[in-house]
Amino acid sequence: MTLLEEVLSFNKEFVTNKMYEEFTTDKFPDKRVVILTCMDTRLVELVTKAMNFKNGDVKIVRNAGAIINHPFGSIMRSLLVAVYQLRADEVLIVGHHDCGMSTLSSDVMFDAMKERGVKQETIDTLRHAGIEVDQWLEGFSSVEESVQHSVHMVKSHPLMVPNIPVHGLVIHPETGELDLVVDGYEKEASL
C-alpha cells in the first residue's frame, strides 16, 4: 500500500467515525495570535503544547527556519492575512535550537539536487539570470539573530499594523523550553 493509499484509507475511517468532531472550531484564532515557526517535525505539536495553546487558539505559518526573507513573499502575506482578515492581534516568531537551517549551505543543497536529477546547467542558468540562488539557499549562523531579523521584517513592514506586538522566541525541540529573544511589548529600539 502506498502512503497516499494509507492516508485516504485512514481518512475514510476518520470521517465515517466522526473523529473530526474534537477539532471543530472556526477560522478565527480564539487567542488572536499568529505564530510563524519552523517546519521541523519535532515542532508539529510541541510549539503549541509548550505555550498552552489548543486547536482553534492560534493561526500557524510554517517554513524552513521560521525565516522571512522577502517583505512581499508568501510568509509575510500570510501574516498580514492573519492580522487583517482573521483577527490576530499579536505575532509570535518561534525559531528553534538545532535547526537544520543553521547548517544549510547552497553547495550541499546543489549537490543533493544534482543527485536527484537537477542538471548543473539549470543551476548555472539561474545564476546567470541574476537570481541569487546561492544566497537564497543559505542558512543562518545564529537562530537568535534569525528570529530578530524576522521580527524586524514584520515590525517594519509598511502594511503591518504599526503597534502590533511581535515577539521573538527560540524553543528547545527536546524540552519545549522557550527562550525570549524579543519582547514585542517593548520598543523595537533594541533590534
TrEMBL record:
The record lists the organism as Bacillus lumedeiriae
Q: What is this protein called?
A: carbonic anhydrase
Q: Which UniProt keywords apply?
A: Metal-binding, Zinc
Report the domain of life of the source organism: Bacteria
Q: Which Pfam families match?
A: Pro_CA (PF00484)
Q: Show the SMART domains listed in the entry.
A: Pro_CA (SM00947)
The answer to whether UniProt assigns keyword Cytoplasm to this entry is no
Q: Which family does it belong to?
A: Belongs to the beta-class carbonic anhydrase family.
Q: What's the catalysed reaction? A: hydrogencarbonate + H(+) = CO2 + H2O
Task: Identify the cofactor(s).
Answer: Zn(2+)
Give the Enzyme Commission number.
4.2.1.1
Q: Which leading EC class covers this enzyme?
A: lyase
Database matches in InterPro entries: Carbonic_anhydrase, Carbonic_anhydrase_sf
